[in-house]
Amino acid sequence: MNPLLDKLQPYPFEKLRLLFSGITPNSAYSPISLGIGEPKHPTPPFIQKAIADNLGGLANYPATAGSDALRAAVAGWLERRYGLPPFNPATQILPVNGSREALFALAQAVIDPSRGDALVMCPNPFYQIYEGAAYLAGAQPYFVNSDPGLNFAPDYKSVPADVWPRVQLLYLCSPGNPTGAVLTLENWKELFELSDRYGFVIAADECYSEIYFKEDAPLGGLEAAHKLGRTGYPRLIAFSSLSKRSNVPGMRSGFVAGDAEVMKKFLLYRTYHGGAMSPPIQAASVAAWNDEQHVEENRAKYIAKFKQITPMLQEALDVQLPDAGFYLWAKVDKRVAISDTEFAKRLYAEYNVTVLPGSYLAREAHGINPGQNRIRMALVAEVEECLEAAGRIVEFAKKLS
Predict the structure, then answer these.
(1) Of 291, 326, 347, which residue constitutes the final position of a domain?
(2) In whole angstroms, what is the distance from residue 282 CA to residue 50 CA?
(3) CB 217 within 8 A of CB 209
(4) Other C-beta atoms within 10 Å of 209: how many?
(5) Are 264 and 338 found together in one domain?
(6) Which of 275, 269, 252, 227 is nearest to 85 (CA)?
(7) What is the pLDDT at residue 64?
(8) CA 196 to CA 200: how far, in whole Å?
(9) Would you give the DSSP letter of residue 237?
């Protein structure tokens, strides 16, 4: 077996299962989970219909590059959403089976393991796929801690000068999971200058981009590059997904877009890897990317939900409305005298509510675990269920304090 598999840590939800083992939650309360970021709003009927109407496509092998119609729909969405100049759908866009598999696969195509000292730079806390992708590509992850003083942006200025020449791939997530932070144009400018100097590829994970709470939509990586005059998006690959935007996590549909030279190699890798998208899913994806009304309605539901729940939780926890995304990233050590893992364990036992300990979403790096004494709450269910969960969390936290 591949010995690199032994470097993979248990997934956060496996750690949570072990944390809860042997616990029988209080039966006076119905179970509510805020632990997993799986959208629970209904899937739009027109997307379901598009799948049903195109089942005849199951009789055909799909091309890895996807259909012309799908690439054109993605190009159109990128141009409308970010104010970008026309994309070349044939060379700058690839459909993928959800951003997760593509985030993993990109490292396998980008990393040169023969160098022996290759690094993959990751934010901390982070989406665990980044770490696994680094190890399986023969590289080592290098974690840059998110700084609450920088609106939870990774503090790249803290990285020693001798680290940057070893970096071959840099993952970032904006809006961030779990913090909800959005990178600024100045943040992007700093990263682009580093990429120019050291030659690494930037993988911009933007799957939460369409759930936001401010008037202006979150800045995207391709948008930042365009504003900074970076024609052709050198060494930049953006990842997006329909899962959160359109409430279709089971469809496994997204895309990657950016630097045509990187995309050419990535297409070659995916052709061998077997990364083609099913034709009915492609047809449904075309319908989803071409419609914004359902996205606006979905966003309005999140805005209303967070507007009610954030002030409730602020009565007992140190928590703020994020820039974007559907998570609340709350600090528990100021007002309660227990750790994030103990908080999650006792909340589950006493109130039958599941949240994810923040330390499970990060690694100890540079002397600290930046997720320690925080909890992530995924407000993905309908508002009534989230309100009920928030009420229980407040009652539990007040009891502790």
Answers:
(1) 291
(2) 9
(3) yes
(4) 26
(5) no
(6) 227
(7) 97
(8) 8
(9) E
φ, ψ of residue 265 to 5 degrees: the values are -70, -35
Query: Do residues 259 and 345 both lie within one domain?
Result: no
Domain interval for residue 301: 3-42+294-400
CATH number assigned to the domain comprising residue 208: 3.40.640.10
Residues in the chain: 401
Domains identified in the chain, total number: 2
- pLDDT, residue 334, reads 66
Spell out, as residue ranges, where the chain has pLDDT lower than 50.
none
Domain boundary among 266, 291, 316: 291
Residue 336: per-residue pLDDT = 75
Of residues 392, 286, 360, the one with CA closest to residue 124: 360
Q: Specify the pLDDT at position 115.
A: 87
- Tell me the C-alpha distance between 47 and 247, whole Å: 10
Task: Please report, as a single letter, which amino acid is at residue 124.
Answer: N
Domain match, 34 and 74 both:
no
Is there a single domain that holds both residue 216 and residue 256? yes
Q: How far apart are the first and last CA of the chain?
A: 50
Q: What's the distance, CA 41 to chain centroid?
A: 18
Please name the amino acid found at residue 209: S
Helix (H, G, I), strand (E, B) or coil at 244: helix
Which residues in 86-221 belong to E strands, given as ranges?
A: 93-96, 119-124, 140-147, 153-154, 167-173, 201-205
What pLDDT score was predicted for residue 116?
Answer: 87
